[in-house]
Amino acid sequence: MQYSPESLQAFAEAACLGSFSAAARKLGKSQSTVSEAIARLEIDLGLTLFDRSSRQPQLTEAGHALLGRVEEVLMANDRLGQLAHQLVGGLESRVTLAMSDTYQSAEFEARLAEIDARYPDLEFEWLIAEDSDVLDLVVQGRASLGLLAAQKDYPPDVSSATLSEQAEFGLFVSRDHPLAGRAQVEREDLLAYRALRLNTYLDDAAPMLGGRCWSAPNYLLLLDMAVLGFGWIELPSWMVGRFASGRMKELKVAGWPRRVAVDVIWSRQRRLGPAASWLAERLLGR
């Protein structure tokens, strides 16, 4: 049986946003159009996807079970459309990549060299942002692609794929910091000293143990603060090796270094051009 992409998108948006009216505003359609699309999908499936007995529709058990599959279908449809668009041609004039400092590697640098050789006249813009800011730049259309630490969930209008290469984080202090001389550091030891962390995003897996804290909006500023001895910090290992070699000491703490999956993301609302589509595929090793 064939299911209307419009019905699937209406269902996914309503499930994410919690109401038909919010989904209608997001999709630029009337609420009745969204309601009818979802009703048609329920008839086609032979299932009730939303409990409409309360003011706000609630996903039924069947709705919860099918939501993930619907998102997979939308993602596959999105990739099919991208491929067709690429075959038709029409190279975009600019590709903007919003990227977290979480990820940096020789593989990424090789991809930049490839895009330079393949599309020499393409304008390439590289933005540095972290986590939710990367997502916002992609959703708003400011960036074609985003690279960020993998998230548990994304909005229905955002497609994602996970890179095979992971990022590595370690705990670091300056060479003159009191913790630098210890062969082994316990988590409790960190409480006695100031932590340095991003003020734009709190990773639940990061060692935020309370106590004193200084913050900054990006990792490079935090690196400078750590080099000056103002506290301990969890940083991408590549960054310390490149910008603070010999000036920082990696702490030996149980659970670190830790590895973080990295996703490439793009918006379904704006079809990727050939260059951005090609770059996404190369980042994924395809």
TrEMBL record:
Q: What keywords appear on the UniProt entry?
A: DNA-binding, Transcription, Transcription regulation
Which GO terms fall under molecular function for this chain's record? DNA-binding transcription factor activity; transcription cis-regulatory region binding
- Pfam families to which the protein is assigned, alphabetical: HTH_1, LysR_substrate
HTH lysR-type domain residues are 1-60
Concerning InterPro entries, the annotation shows: LysR_HTH_N, LysR_subst-bd, WH-like_DNA-bd_sf, WH_DNA-bd_sf
Q: Could you tell me which PROSITE patterns the record lists for this protein?
A: HTH_LYSR (PS50931)
Q: Which PANTHER family match?
A: HTH-TYPE TRANSCRIPTIONAL REGULATOR (PTHR30126), LYSR FAMILY TRANSCRIPTIONAL REGULATOR (PTHR30126:SF91)
Family recorded in the similarity comment = Belongs to the LysR transcriptional regulatory family.
Q: Under what name is this protein listed? A: LysR family transcriptional regulator
Q: Which organism is it from?
A: Pseudomonas denitrificans
Per the UniProt record, the lineage of the source organism begins with: Bacteria, Pseudomonadati, Pseudomonadota, Gammaproteobacteria, Pseudomonadales
